[in-house]
Specification:
It is built from 12 helices and 21 strands. By secondary structure, it is α/β, with parallel strands linked by helices. Helix 5 crosses helix 6 and helix 8 runs parallel beside helix 9. The longest helix has 19 residues. Bound molecules: pyridoxal-5'-phosphate.
């Protein structure tokens, strides 16, 4: 559920006329709904309320510091995957003891900064990483809290690019090896073992893979107990899917939480959840304007001013995004491709789809763009990144300004050697 709805013929974000925002800030832009974010926050909290828990929102889904701040204000922590995300987390005021650090390739510098900031724990993805964290912690005379990220070999039945919990994926430590590494971790002077973690993939629209993964973690939890290793945190990662198409029915957080709780009655640990997409995905839309239309042999091309550099999901995952007119005009629908201006065949938002007969100048809303939208955007084709706007009721704020052309070449310079013809 989200709060992008028509009032008469006009698409509104909560109580704000989207066409009005477009005339104020220009196109294209990302638009987020505060009320939708809070609705999803409440649904998730309510879903996991039967479990002792802490939610660490996954920063990479949507990293804008205002979005982070909204969740921090509500008491959530953050799941980070880089030094840059650590910086964002701290800049938006996240208490360090609510930060968990995931990711397969942490550098010494990132590890050191995270230890010094006092984060809750590292989710460690390999034996070598464990040694490195120990080395860094030892060097600066600190103790690093860790959990091991287990690869439970569960098929989440999602797009292959976002499945992360299979043996063939690069993520986590194979289940068969993990106990040995726990033993090793437990003997390292500057390491404190506090948790078990997993994250089996993203946009998972079935419940069973989550339950299967939890069962494996639970088995490990009891095995570790027998070995004298007390686990305080069980981190189940993120991955809950959202309905990109209206007919899709991913598990509701309520169903997710209550089913985990059913399996967890004999476990004495705090559960950590790292939701990203399910919180922000449908709380954001991409608003773009039609530049031109072209009638091809078997379809119409609608060329808009946003491109795959702004929203890469269709190009990268062949993902589906609903397309709506910002102002309904009626009339017949046409089979069209909604495409961007970039010099790539993969630059499309919708293909071979019945959509309103868009014309030059029309505004188009691309739905489900709040997660992995702006955060995956780039400057490809030397296109300044677009602004992010937050709506609350009838007010809106620019929470990231449109980049300028100066921004595009910031940090570049032409050495004297090349200033004149050789
Ligand atoms: C990306 C990621 C998440 C968030 O995944 P969603 O599918 O957006 O919920 C959580 N945890 C880790 C470790 C991740 O890499």
């Amino acid at each position: 559920m989200h709060f992008f709805q028509y009032k008469g013929k006009k698409l509104f974000a909560e109580d704000t006329d989207i066409a009005q925002i477009a005339s104020d800030v220009g196109t294209p832009f990302y638009l987020y709904s505060y009320k939708t974010l809070i609705r999803h926050y409440n649904a998730f909290e309510n879903g996991v309320k039967l479990l002792p828990h802490m939610v660490c929102y996954s920063v990479k889904a949507n990293s804008n510091i205002t979005i982070l701040k909204i969740f921090i204000n509500k008491g959530w922590g953050l799941d980070i995957v880089s030094g840059g995300e650590l910086y964002r987390a701290l800049m938006s005021g996240c208490p360090p003891n609510k930060i968990v650090f995931s990711g397969v390739g942490k550098t010494d510098e990132e590890i050191r900064r995270a230890i010094q900031a006092g984060i809750l724990m590292f989710n460690v993805e390999s034996s070598q990483e464990l040694e490195e964290i120990h080395k860094v912690a030892n060097h600066i005379g600190e103790i690093a809290r860790i959990s091991l990220r287990v690869n439970p070999d569960i098929d989440p039945e999602t797009h292959p690019y976002i499945a992360t919990g299979l043996f063939k994926n690069k993520f986590g430590i194979p289940y068969s090896e993990v106990k040995e590494i726990y033993k090793k971790a437990n003997n390292l002077s500057n390491i404190e073992v506090v948790g078990i973690s997993c994250h089996i993939g993203s946009q998972i629209i079935q419940l069973q893979p989550f339950i299967d993964a939890f069962k494996k973690l639970k088995e490990l939890y009891f095995d570790l107990k027998k070995m004298g290793i007390e686990i305080k945190y069980i981190d189940l990662g993120g991955g809950l899917g959202i309905p990109y198409k209206e007919e899709e029915k991913p598990p509701h957080p309520e169903e997710y939480g209550s089913n985990i709780a059913k399996e967890a009655s004999d476990v004495d640990a705090t559960f950590i959840f790292e939701p990203g997409r399910v919180i922000v995905g449908n709380a954001g839309v991409l608003i773009t304007r039609v530049l031109f239309t072209k009638d091809g042999a078997d379809r119409r091309f609608v060329v808009v001013d946003a491109g795959m550099n702004d929203l890469i999901r269709p190009s990268l995952y062949n993902s589906f995004h609903q397309v709506l007119p910002v102002i309904k005009k009626g009339g017949k629908e046409t089979v069209s491709d909604l495409v961007g201006p970039i010099c790539e065949t993969g630059d499309f938002f919708a293909k071979n789809r019945k959509m309103p007969n868009f014309e030059k100048g029309d505004l188009v809303a691309i739905l489900g763009a709040g997660a992995y939208g702006f955060s995956m955007s780039s400057n490809y084709n030397s296109r300044p990144r677009i602004p992010e706007i937050l709506v609350k009721e009838d007010k809106f704020w620019v929470i990231r300004v449109r980049e300028s052309e100066e921004d595009l070449i910031r940090g570049e310079n032409i050495p004297d050697h090349f200033k004149e013809e050789q």
